[in-house]
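G., the chain you wanted modeled:
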Amino acid sequence: MFEKPLGMRDTLPNLYETKEHVRSSLEAEMKCWGYQFIGTPALEYYETVGTASAILDQQLFKLLDQEGNTLVLRPDMTAPIARVAASKLLKDNLPFRLAYSANVFRAQQREGGRPAEFEQVGVECIGDETVSADGEMIALAVASLKEAGLKNFQLSIGHAGFVKELFIQILGTEERARELTKFLYEKNYVGYREHVKSLPLSSIDSQRLLAFLDLRGGVEVIGRTLDLIENEKGKEAILELKELWNIIRDYDIAGHIKFDLTLVSHMSYYTGILFEVYAGNVGFPIGNGGRYDGLLQKFGKSTGATGFAIRLDRLLEAIGELDETVPVNCILFSSERRKEAYELAKAKRLEGKRVVLQDISGVKDIDACTNKYSDVTFLVGKTGKEPVE
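Predicted structure as tokens:
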């Protein structure tokens, strides 16, 4: 009788408190880096944001407005922000640094513990095509996660352009490249190897595709990639990764970084450097990001862009419960001392304290009440000194 729609969740007070604390920490760090927060509607037109988004069509929540237009609940925030930037912001040809904290919606056919509504906190740097902007995304992601209280985490960095160029160079067509890329997205490396062995390729090309799976580890991985790629675009991708490594060292965040050239994303609009964030006790990435230089063309503006999003629910799972909860004071009062209680509560709130006012006639269990709050003040009876029954 009281079931929720598939994939929907309630957020109870303790979790809400933790979420608010973590969210505010992320937002504060992003603001320190000069990012301005923006809001977009929960509902967008299917023909614009819906089709521009990289989310599969069957995962979109669709509905009709009174004029018969198809609407969608926003499935991500990158496409709506690209819409806003292309139509209202990119007039001075200057990079824009925008941030957001918002719920997104993706329908689930089989829930399996996966939410259909979840909150993302993220940033978009629009109008900057430099590798410095990619490095800024990675450094900001690291700084934000640290500020939120996450201690043990790692960013895996890859390059969408490198994978695409390597596969097309060897396989010949984008269709064959996409077919092989699917195994990487599913992290089905056994299936990948079997598929490669079934392809009508020379032994040299087959070996190159199999050796590709070993391109994971430290900075030494970048050097090994040059032995596999032959065309200029692929080599340009490797040079970008080399430049990125120098930027990472300058930010002094190398301890959180690994390279994974097999990394691909379900977000099909990524074109260059991309990354995922992993943390202990969580079986999925808690965040991801990358360069998407072609997305704004769908909204009539040609410019480079990069960004990242952190899944708040997964970040909370990685952090666990907060070490400290915010103390709440309770003032128990009787009718004779109501005004005194109100004045005391007002004074405490002006000091920034959280205060609960509770008429004692509405409390059946005094012990339970005193155990719930960090501090309890009794204003009961004419003098406040009478024993409480």
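The chain is about 40% helix and 20% strand.

Shout if anything looks off.
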